[in-house]
């Protein structure tokens, strides 16, 4: 009996290994492609195929394409059950390139980049890297998180997304000279959409990448799409409009990107109405704060998270809050929100110190034009365990104030995706977070059997 079980298990293992072994040859059967491809290299992550005209001296794709695909899976997750990227190279034919994903029968349900015309003799530098990496970007946008389609493709085309993806990959793989070359190459590059003279990389994607979390902010965009955007049967059911595009990138960054979009693309009445509707249709907040304001009573409609500060009507509108539109509020313990009928903190006002399900009872429904968020005391206090973190948002040192004995406690910090980005043992009343990218994080303090969690914003 044991021998039978062993034989069955061995058979399953052998079949699994064989199913994951890329074929030695592959007959093309897509578009005008009809070449018989030969497998030149493979490992656990990549299979490289050449047609007969690619020089045998070209070997840089063996390492580079594997490194790219490993990086992609580490950042964005897996793409189907086959771990391989199939990288196809041609010479003297098929100019440009194209991708395919594991959803597509046309390429035998494999993640594929197919590029030409070569000759690929740069040794793995410059344009050879650019075009190969560009096609991988299309796989990421078209098959992330197990969902088929790219709802943003009509917005960013072929493909402004690939430009920031290529830059991130070069940095992620330690190819700083290539990243610098690519960055410089794009500084003066303009496009005619959505308006003539648009600098997509310089004025939109690079500021997002540089200011709001780098690699993580790119991944968060696709995570939000998978969580909220309409889909059926494992595919997105429609494309995004401009307002939805700005809204989802705002969710990824944790701040309203309406001002950045206005600067980069201009801001039309159509974009404004689409943006406002998107916040209603997909009511996720941008980041976190000590107070949240809602469009409808009972915390319905769009939600905007606010930190400590004074917000004029213009500032509120830039964050997506319309004039005379707030109907309910949530306020963290230790903070208060002062609402004003008029702009610039004038007119009748009311102070809210706890959650308020509907401002109708306060005669303040749909009447706020400006507001102030402030701490009731010098720092926010949580009554249950007296563990206080400050300042929040934080730039350099996150400090702790507690009556609990926490010396020797384990400190862990997680990003929005739940990934641990820092770990330390608490020996002082502060921790240096200056090297963390801007974004929202969760602090987890473990001491014996007790765990305390706090959320903070790294500015």
Automatic annotation (TrEMBL):
Gene3D superfamilies: Crystallins (2.60.20.10). Coiled coil: none annotated. Belongs to the beta/gamma-crystallin family. PROSITE patterns: CRYSTALLIN_BETA_GAMMA. The keyword Signal applies. Residues 1-19 form the signal peptide. This is Beta/gamma crystallin 'Greek key' domain-containing protein. Transmembrane segments: none annotated. It holds the Pfam family Por_Secre_tail. SUPFAM superfamilies: gamma-Crystallin-like. It comes from the Bacteria. Residues 289-333 form the Beta/gamma crystallin 'Greek key' domain. Keywords: Repeat, Signal.
């Amino acid at each position: 009996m044991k021998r039978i079980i062993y034989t069955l298990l061995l058979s399953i293992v052998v079949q699994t290994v064989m199913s994951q072994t890329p074929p030695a040859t592959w007959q093309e059967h897509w578009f005008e492609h009809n070449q018989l491809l030969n497998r030149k290299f493979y490992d656990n992550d990549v299979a490289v195929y050449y047609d007969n005209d690619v020089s045998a001296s070209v070997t840089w794709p063996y390492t580079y394409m594997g490194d790219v695909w490993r990086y992609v899976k580490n950042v964005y997750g897996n793409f189907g059950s086959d771990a391989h990227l199939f990288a196809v190279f041609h010479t003297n034919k098929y100019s440009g390139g194209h991708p395919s994903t594991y959803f597509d029968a046309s390429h035998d349900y494999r993640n594929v980049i197919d590029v030409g015309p070569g000759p690929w003799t740069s040794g793995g530098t410059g344009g050879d890297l650019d075009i190969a990496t560009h096609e991988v970007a299309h796989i990421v946008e078209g098959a992330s998180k197990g969902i088929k389609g790219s709802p943003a493709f009509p917005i960013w085309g072929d493909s402004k997304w690939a430009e920031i993806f290529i830059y991130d990959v070069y940095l992620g793989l330690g190819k700083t000279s290539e990243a610098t070359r690519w960055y410089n190459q794009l500084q003066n590059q303009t496009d005619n959409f959505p308006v003539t003279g648009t600098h997509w990389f310089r004025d939109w994607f690079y500021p997002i990448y540089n200011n709001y979390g780098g690699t993580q902010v790119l991944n968060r965009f696709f995570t939000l799409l998978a969580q909220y955007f309409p889909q059926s049967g494992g595919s997105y059911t429609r494309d995004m409009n401009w307002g939805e595009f700005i809204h989802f990138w705002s969710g990824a960054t944790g701040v309203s990107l309406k001002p950045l979009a206005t600067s980069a693309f201009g801001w039309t009445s159509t974009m404004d109405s689409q943006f406002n509707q998107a916040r209603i249709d997909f009511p996720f907040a941008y980041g976190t704060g000590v107070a949240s304001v809602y469009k409808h009573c009972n915390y319905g409609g769009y939600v905007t998270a606010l930190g400590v500060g004074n917000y004029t009507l213009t500032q509120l509108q830039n964050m997506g809050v319309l004039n005379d539109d707030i109907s309910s509020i949530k306020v963290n313990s230790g903070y208060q929100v002062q609402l004003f009928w008029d702009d610039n903190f004038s007119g009748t006002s009311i102070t809210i110190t706890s959650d308020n399900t509907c401002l109708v009872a306060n005669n303040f429904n749909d009447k706020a034009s400006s507001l102030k968020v402030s701490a009731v005391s010098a720092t926010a206090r949580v009554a249950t365990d007296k563990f206080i973190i400050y300042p929040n948002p934080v730039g350099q040192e996150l400090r702790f104030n507690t009556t609990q004995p926490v010396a020797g406690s384990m400190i862990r910090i997680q990003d929005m995706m739940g990934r641990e980005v820092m770990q330390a043992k608490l020996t002082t009343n502060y921790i240096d977070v200056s090297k963390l990218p801007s974004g929202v994080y969760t602090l987890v303090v473990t001491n014996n059997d007790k765990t305390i969690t706090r959320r903070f914003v790294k500015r």
